[in-house]
Each structure stands twice: as C-alpha cells, then as structure tokens.
Amino acid sequence: MIGDWGPQDRSGLTPVPGGATAADGFRAGGVASGVKASGRPDLALVVADVPAGAAAVTTTNLVKAPACHLTDRHVANGRAQAIVINAGNANVCTPEGEAHAQRLADATAEQLGLLSQDVLVMSTGVIGVPLPVQRIEAALPALAAGLTRDGGDAAAHAMLTTDTRTKQVAYRVSDEQGSCVVGGMAKGVGMIEPAMATLLVVVTTDAPLSGPVGRQLLRAAVSRTFNRISVDGDGSTSDTVALLASGAAARPPGLDTLARGVAAVCADLAHAVVSDGEGATRVAAVTVRQAATEADAETLARAVATSLLVRAALHGADPNWGRILMAMGNARVDFDPRRVSVRCGGITVCRFGVAATFDRGQAAVAMQQPEVSIEVDLGSGDAAATVLTCDLTPEYVRFNAEYTT
Amino acid sequence: MIGDWGPQDRSGLTPVPGGATAADGFRAGGVASGVKASGRPDLALVVADVPAGAAAVTTTNLVKAPACHLTDRHVANGRAQAIVINAGNANVCTPEGEAHAQRLADATAEQLGLLSQDVLVMSTGVIGVPLPVQRIEAALPALAAGLTRDGGDAAAHAMLTTDTRTKQVAYRVSDEQGSCVVGGMAKGVGMIEPAMATLLVVVTTDAPLSGPVGRQLLRAAVSRTFNRISVDGDGSTSDTVALLASGAAARPPGLDTLARGVAAVCADLAHAVVSDGEGATRVAAVTVRQAATEADAETLARAVATSLLVRAALHGADPNWGRILMAMGNARVDFDPRRVSVRCGGITVCRFGVAATFDRGQAAVAMQQPEVSIEVDLGSGDAAATVLTCDLTPEYVRFNAEYTT
C-alpha cells in the first residue's frame, strides 16, 4: 500500500480470491434488470445462509436516500441476512422514494423467504427520476434463483456505475487462536447523470460477530479509510458501508486480528475507489505527522487532499509545497508554519517553513509515479493521519461537465 | 449586476473613470522593477496628498505573509498615506521575509518623505523565493517621482499577476447632504508559479473618514463581497483589502450613502475578479433565500458555490439540481429537503425537493449565458445570501497543473 495508508501491520493476512463471497456462508449474484438503459448488469444480491450479525454506516448528508434510512432501520437490531443493491437509479428526491425502497426490501425478502426486516438496501445512480421498481421486482426471481458461492464477481459488476473496473478484495486472517476470511466489494466515487458520487461497500466475514461488536469494528475501520478519501470533496446522499458476519468459521481468530482484517479490506477497497476516480491518473497519500492530536492531523491532511490547487499540482507532478502550506493555513487548526517540513515523493522540498534545496529532476521523477506520498511534519506533537486523494485532471472536469439533461 | 450580487440600491451612484485615483487627493503610478522576469510592470504605488484615514482587512490564513503582518501593524492607528504593491514575488516562506517587507515600507517612506509607519505593503507572486528587494528599492525613486493624478490605470496594471485584465471601478456617490467619489482597483485570483491565489484590493475615497469608521465600512462591505466569492476555494497567504480616505471632498454625503458606495465598489471589483478566474467561461451568483439566518444562507450558498460537481455542471450548462441539493446536504446546516426549490437561470428545475417539469431546451439556453443565477428557496425563514463563483473548466486544471519547478 501507498505511504502510510491503511493498517501497517498486515501479519497474518493472506490475500484470497472471491471478493464478497470469499468468506464461507455467503452466496451472491448480479443481473441486468433494465434500470440501466445500457442493458448492463444493475442489480446485485449478497445473501448469508443464516441470519448474520450486521452493521452499517450510512451517509451524513442531510439529503439522505430512502435506501439509507431503510438500511439504518433494518440494521438497528444488529441482524440482517441479505443486501440488495441496484445501480442506475439512486431513488433519491422522488415523491415515491420511501415506498420504493420498501418494495425493494419486500420483494427481495419474498424471493428469499426472509423477513423484510432482514434485508438491507443500497441504491445508486440518477437522482430525481422515479425508480422503475417493477423492473427490479421482475428481475429478482431469476437473481435469487441464480445465487452462487462464487457469485461475488457478478455482484461486484452489477453494482458499478461509472466505475471503470470492479473493486474486490479478500484476506484469510489468521492468528494463534484460529482463522477466518474477510472480503468485500465496492463501487466507487463516480458521477451519475445527472447526479452525484456514491460509495457503496459490502464487507463479509465468516467470523461470528454480534451486531454491536461488528458496528465497533466497522466504524473504527471506516473512520480511517472510507472517511479519509477524497475525490470530489462531496459526500453523496447514498453512501453506505455494510458488514455481514455469517459465523460459519469454526475457529475464528482473536478480535484484534479480525479488526485488522476488516481495516485492511476497507483500506484496500478505499484505495481502489480513489485509484478509479474519474479522470484520475495519480493517487496521493497525504500524511500529516507530529500533530498535537489525530483530529488535527486528519483536518490538515484533508485540507491538503481536497485543495484544488494541490490536486492540480499533483496532476502536473509539481512538488508545490507553497500550495500545501496555504491549504493547511486555511484549515483553522493551530500550528507553527516555521516548524513545518514537507516531503513529496520522499524528497524534502520544504524545511522549517522555507524552501529546501533539492534536485528538481529527481523530484519530477518521484512525482510522476502513479502513487505519490506527500508527507508533512508539523513539529508539534506525535499524532498522525493519512488521507488519500487523486489528481484533478481536465478529463474529470470534462466528464462532469457533459450536458446531461 | 448579476442576480442578487452586491447592493441592490444603487441610487445616487454614478460611474466615473479613474479607478484608484478617481477620488480627489490621490496620485498613483506603476513601473517595472525587474522582479517579474517578463519585464512587465510589477511595482505600484498609491499615495494620498495628506495622511489619510485608513483601514485594512488581511488574510485569515495561518500562513500569513510578512506584508500582511506589517500592514496590520501600520494600519492599527487608523492612519496611512501610501500603499506600495509589488507583484511577481509574494515574499512568503522565506527566511528574510519580515526584514524585506520592512525595507519595502522604509524605502517607500524615504522616497515620499513620510514616516514608515504611514506606508502599507502588499506583495503577490511566487512564494518561497527570496524577494529581490534591491530591485524594488532601485525602482522606487522613479516611481515616486512619476506619480500622477491619473495614475490609477498604471498602478492597476502593475499589480497584476496571471490576471488577463485590470480591475478598476469608481463611482460618484451623492445624496442631499453632498457627494464624494469612491474608487478602487484589484488584482484577481490568479495562481502564481509555484504558489497561490491572491486577492489584493485598494479602495480610495475623498470623503473624510476616521480609521475606525473606515474599518466599519470596509469590514461590512468585504463580508458581503470579497468574502463571498470562490474561485479556488482556497484563501491565500497574502489577501489584503485596504481603504484610504483623503478627506479632500468639501461636502461629503451621509455615512449610509458612503457605505453603499464602498459596498458597490467592492461588489464590482469582486465580480471582476471572479469573471477573470483562471479558465472561467461563466459566472454564477448562487443565492440562498428563505433561510433561518443569514449565516445559514451564506454557508449553504458557499457549499453550492465551491462544489466541484456544481461548478463542473455549470461549465456544461447543466441545471443539475441534484448536485446542488447534495452540496447543501453536506454543509452541516439544518434544513428540510422537502421544502427546497431551485431555479437555474430563472427556470424552476426542482420544486419541494423533487424534479420540476421544465423545458430542457429553454434551460440549456438560460444556463449557457455568461452570467447565470442559481436560486435556492429553503422555505424556513427570511434570510438570504449570495455567493459568486465561476465554472470549473479543463483550462483551469491545465493552467494549474503546469510543471512549474
């Protein structure tokens, strides 16, 4: 992994194939329901063999999708057995949104013989257009009948929107106590005509986890991974990260080991999302160290990672430390600029607030890599945080400016 | 003026030529000192005939230019007589920054026969590179000797960096009590290799104003004009707005009238700055109305105006209300999305949180204008605020990504 991104200790973690169905006790699948005009797959289902420990984190956007509200309600008891995901229409800002989200859950439950309460819903795509819910209802029987133990890949395809590739990862996670598998899939931050970025993530494990403990693990992982990436600087109305734990693993590892597994899966998926950012050609890990608190470090790293000028400089492979200092100076966090040092691609470009002497050719080469670390030392403490971002490119603007109505 | 931007009541205001030297009691000029490698003018001076009432607002960026610190100190007594402005080097993040800012003030004072304390300093340009202060000192005698009553234009040219044109405005401001002139000049939000956006503004008037009253007028005007524009979303280390009042007007208007004059000058200059944003092809006035408080309205309008997705949609002339709602939903201001209506270019595109029926061809024409209003009604109060922004273009990214080191 790039720079300080994700858990540094990956001992006991071995990559395995299978994505969201890598862990025992899950089946999945994906089909084309006709919601996407292109006819591409747009309906995914992930189902546990038994009621699973469940947790979810949904968007903090005030304009919140009915699917997110429904998922919040259904996951509140710490239990769920299925996640239905539709792409192509976010079911947001429409008069019938709540009724349609409920119909998705009801229809899924009916096909699977579950309680509606045990179904979580994710929707992504165009907003402000009524969801053609009948098409989804019509497609669900075949999808439910065709679920397989290796259907993670089909599900990962069916949740995509403007993503250029699927995002899947899984690890076998072992320690002296035992082992389990943690896997997952994501759809990235892609704009949908005429709407918005949405992050959807499913994490599965065969470790046994109660809902409350699962929520702890998931929140801890999300706070340092999906909450520390930036492509647009905008959070969507529909962002959802959900975890299902089937309990099929006979001898699971300790909770700390499991937590590292969940964190690694979230870090890898978050990295994949940023790498596939629209128009992005380069990923940067912005790490702020020697801060008074982790919150300070995160605020400053986020200010750098979301600065248009820094992201444009990143596109130009320009180690522009002036823009980095300026972005931090706007963040309303107290620090002493005269103590700040900055490294770009491992090369010190600013030392104690003034220009360092460095080889510009060497810096250009370091900044031209597909993955670049930007490291800032504040000299005022020992807390650190890393935020992942991508370069701002003319292609991004062109893509998001296309006349869509 | 576009939409609700600037003071709506412009009665008694008549445009006049002359910019920063339109008001009586001022002389100005501009020369090339050689700080800019291009040999273009880069040193400007505005001087009052007598010690003037003075006020200034400088950047809130924690990484603050030595020139800003000096200007803060020198203006604290409410009096100043000259403003020296150099372009091409911001004198920021260099070991000798404070000494060099002082030398600029001292050398200017010496040439003009003033106290150093009565000189304000503004610097803009590259950061992290020592200011070639000797070149400025060498150029000052000729500049001071060549000051003229119509030198506002020369000064406005000499303060530019990547701006494509000068920004100058002046009004004769009259009421039953009397009249005066308020004028000014600005340099816009342009990135300097390898540095940052900087906004520099000089406002002059021949009305008599004490420093404290001048500060009140200036702060009130700045809070609704220069503090409500967005090009990069980043504030610079060097932003400065300064006001000098010569007192040469024999029969000035009332204070409220004068305040409207200052507000109009600031609004016009701020509009000129946004219009000349790098790569910008279109300006939008984002007005949020029916908010509980003006602070809420401003926060929401700013969230819309700084959203990359909204600004990219603006470039594509796309009335993308979904992105507008999403940007507001992230702003941590409480509102009810089901009460929100949105007009783009005067056309209602969202009514009470859901899609409105509108003519897409008509909307496209309305959005393709060089100036577009985006109006949001919240339905939760009667406060309003307008923030000015420009479209995000591939040219902006290209310009700011150029390899500069």
TrEMBL record, chains A, B:
Name of the protein: Arginine biosynthesis bifunctional protein ArgJ
PANTHER family according to UniProt: ARGININE BIOSYNTHESIS BIFUNCTIONAL PROTEIN ARGJ, ARGININE BIOSYNTHESIS BIFUNCTIONAL PROTEIN ARGJ, MITOCHONDRIAL
Residues of the site described as Involved in the stabilization of negative charge on the oxyanion by the formation of the oxyanion hole: 124-125
Alphabetized HAMAP family for the sequence: ArgJ
Catalytic activity: N(2)-acetyl-L-ornithine + L-glutamate = N-acetyl-L-glutamate + L-ornithine; L-glutamate + acetyl-CoA = N-acetyl-L-glutamate + CoA + H(+)
Cellular location(s): Cytoplasm
Assembly description: Heterotetramer of two alpha and two beta chains.
Pathway: Amino-acid biosynthesis; L-arginine biosynthesis; N(2)-acetyl-L-ornithine from L-glutamate: step 1/4; Amino-acid biosynthesis; L-arginine biosynthesis; L-ornithine and N-acetyl-L-glutamate from L-glutamate and N(2)-acetyl-L-ornithine (cyclic): step 1/1
Keyword Transferase: yes
Molecular function, one GO term: L-glutamate N-acetyltransferase activity, acting on acetyl-L-ornithine as donor
Residues at the catalytic site: 198 (nucleophile)
Protein purpose: Catalyzes two activities which are involved in the cyclic version of arginine biosynthesis: the synthesis of N-acetylglutamate from glutamate and acetyl-CoA as the acetyl donor, and of ornithine by transacetylation between N(2)-acetylornithine and glutamate.
Main location group: cytoplasm
Binding positions (substrate): 161, 187, 198, 278, 400, 405
Entry similarity comment: Belongs to the ArgJ family.
BP GO annotations: L-arginine biosynthetic process; ornithine biosynthetic process
Swiss-Prot/TrEMBL keywords: Acyltransferase, Amino-acid biosynthesis, Arginine biosynthesis, Autocatalytic cleavage, Cytoplasm, Multifunctional enzyme, Transferase
Upper taxonomic lineage: Bacteria, Bacillati, Actinomycetota, Nitriliruptoria, Egicoccales
Annotated positions for site Cleavage: 197-198
GO cellular component: cytoplasm
Gene3D superfamilies assigned: ArgJ beta chain, C-terminal domain (3.10.20.340), L-amino peptidase D-ALA esterase/amidase (3.60.70.12)
Catalytic activity, EC: 2.3.1.35, 2.3.1.1
